[in-house]
Write a structure and sequence with these properties.
7-stranded mixed beta sheet, mainly beta, 4-stranded antiparallel beta sheet, 11 strands
C-alpha cells in the first residue's frame, strides 16, 4: 500500500524557516519523482515544487523561487522553506505519480502538514 507521510509543519513568524519532510512506505521513494503542493483556506491547491528521481531535477512555482529548496535522500524528500511570508500559510502535501519525472499529475497523496506564518 502506497503511503506518504509529511512532517515538520508548525507555527513560524514571518521571515522564519521550516523544513518539511516526506517519508514513504509501500514503494521505493528513491525511484520516483515527488512533488510538494499546498492549499490555503478558500484557495485551490497549487503545486509548489517537485524533484525527479534519476537526476534530481527540480521545479518551483515562481512565488517560492529563491526561498524554498527541495531535496531528497534515499528515504525522504525535504522542502526547506526560508523567508516565510503570511501568504505561504497552508496545508502542505507531498504526492507522487509513481513516475521518475515531474510530468504527471500525482495519484498518491499524504495527509498534509499545516504551516502557519503569523506574528
Amino acid at each position: 500500500q502506497v503511503q506518504l507521510v509529511e512532517s515538520g509543519g508548525g507555527l513560524v513568524q514571518p521571515g522564519g524557516s521550516l523544513r518539511l519532510s516526506c517519508a514513504a512506505s509501500g514503494f521505493t521513494l528513491s525511484y520516483y519523482a515527488i512533488g510538494w503542493f499546498r492549499q490555503a483556506p478558500g484557495k485551490e491547491r497549487e503545486g509548489v515544487s517537485c524533484i525527479s528521481s534519476t537526476y534530481h531535477v527540480t521545479q518551483y512555482t515562481d512565488s517560492v523561487k529563491g526561498r524554498f529548496t527541495i531535496s531528497r535522500d534515499k528515504n525522504t524528500v525535504y522542502l526547506q522553506m526560508n523567508s516565510l511570508k503570511p501568504e505561504d500559510a497552508a496545508v502542505y502535501y507531498c504526492a507522487t505519480a509513481l513516475s521518475p519525472s515531474c510530468t504527471r499529475a500525482p495519484d498518491y497523496w499524504g495527509q498534509g502538514t499545516q504551516v502557519t506564518v503569523s506574528s
